[in-house]
Amino acid sequence: MFIHLDLGWMSHPFPLSSFKIASSDQLLILRRLGLTQVRWSPAKSDLALQAPVAVAAKAPAVAADVVTADQPTPEELAREAHRRALAAQREALRLCEAQYSEAAEGFRGVMDKVQADPQQARAQAESLTAALLDKMLVEGDLNMRLLNESAGDRSTAHALNVCIIALLLGRAFGLGRDEMMDLGVGSLLHDVGKLEIAARLRHRDESFTSAEAQAYQQHVAKGVAIAQTMGLAPGPLLIIAQHHEHADGSGFPQRINMDRMSTGARIVALVNRFDGLCNPLISSKAMTPHEALSLMFAQGRNRFDATMLNAFIRMMGVYPPGSTVQLTDDRYALVVSVNSARPLKPRVMVHDVKVPKEEALILNLEETPDLGIRRSLKPQFLPRHSLDYLSPRARIAYFFDAAVTGPGELAA
After folding, report:
1. Which structural domain, as residue segments, surrounds residue 390?
2. Residues 6+ apart with CB under 8 A from 311
3. Could you tell me if 209 and 111 lie in one domain?
4. Whole-model pTM?
5. CB 273 within 8 A of CB 251
6. pLDDT tens per residue, range 311-349
7. Which end of the chain has the least Cβ crowding within 10 Å, N or C?
8. Is residue 412 part of a domain?
C-alpha cells in the first residue's frame, strides 16, 4: 500500500512522508508512531490492482469483442494519465515545500535562542542537522528541486540554501555521518556573527566604505566567539571561522590558503558564494544559477578548491534548478530539478501553448534523446508570454527528494 503520513517531516524516521510499505519493519515503526490513521493512495498501490478483479468476478460475462459503454476511450485514458501525473507532481512539490518550511521554522528557533540560551541553541542546531541527514543519507540518488516558496526572511533562506547544497556536496564526496554533522551545523550557523553587527552592514555591498567593509568582516570573529559560548565542536567552529577564506589566500579574516582550510570550510565558502550571486540583497543584480556557475568557473577558479569546484558543477548540472533556458526545438523552459548523479539532462517545465499553465507537466530530458537545451538566458530576455507562463523565481530556494521516476513525470 502507498501511504501518506500527515506528520511533520522531522516527526518520523522515514526518508519521505509518502511511500509504499515494503516491509514488516516499516509496519512496526508505523505502529510505534502511535498514529490513529494514515492516508492511502489506491492509484499508487499494488493492492489497487486487486479491486477490479474482485468486481469482475461478480459481473456477468461479456464477449471479448463487445465494447461496453463504460469502456474508456484512448483520449479519456490519456487525460486520466495526465491528471494523475499532475497530481503526483503537485504532491511531491507540496511535500518538499512542507519539509523546507519545517526546517526554516527549526532554524529560526535556533537563532532565537543563540543569545539567550546558547547551549540549547547548539542542541537544536544539531537536532535539525540530524533530521536533514536522516532524509538525505539514504540509498539511491537524490534530486535537487527548485521550490516555489522560500523561507521568508533572507537570512533564513540563505542559511538553509547553503546548508542543503553543502550537505548534498558532502554526500557526493562520500563524507561520513560525523563529518556531515559538522558540515550541517557549521553551514547552518556560518553567519551567526551577524547577530552582533548593525542590520545595514549584514549584507556586503560594493558601496561600503573602508570602515563599513571592516565592520562587515567582523561578523566572522563575532561568530567564532558566539560559537564558543554555544560549545560547538571544532568542525563547525572552523567552518564559521573560515567560510570567507579563499584557496589562494585572498579571503578574510586570516588570509589563509586552501591547505589550511578544513574540508567543511572549503565546501561552505564555495556554496556561500554561489548563493550570494543567485540571491543578492538587490534582486536586480541576481544572476541565474547557470550564470553564477559560469562566473565562478571563469573568474573564481583560484578562489576555490579546483577539485571541489568541478565536483560542485557536476552535481548542480550545467543548468542548475532555477535556470531559464531555450530548448533545441526553440521552446522556452524553466529547470525545476536535477538528479545530482545524472545532471546533464535535468527536468524542465516547458512553455507549451497547447497546455494551460496550471496543467504544465515536467519533462525529463534524460528520456528525450531528441530534445535538449540550446542555451541559458536571463528571465528578462524571455518572450512576455513565456515569462508569464514559467514565472521564474525572484529568489532561488532549493530542497531535495528521492530521485524516482513514475507517473509523476512525462518523458515527452
Report:
1. 324-402
2. 169, 172, 173
3. yes
4. 0.81
5. no
6. 999 899 889 999 999 999 999 999 999 987 777 789 999
7. C
8. no
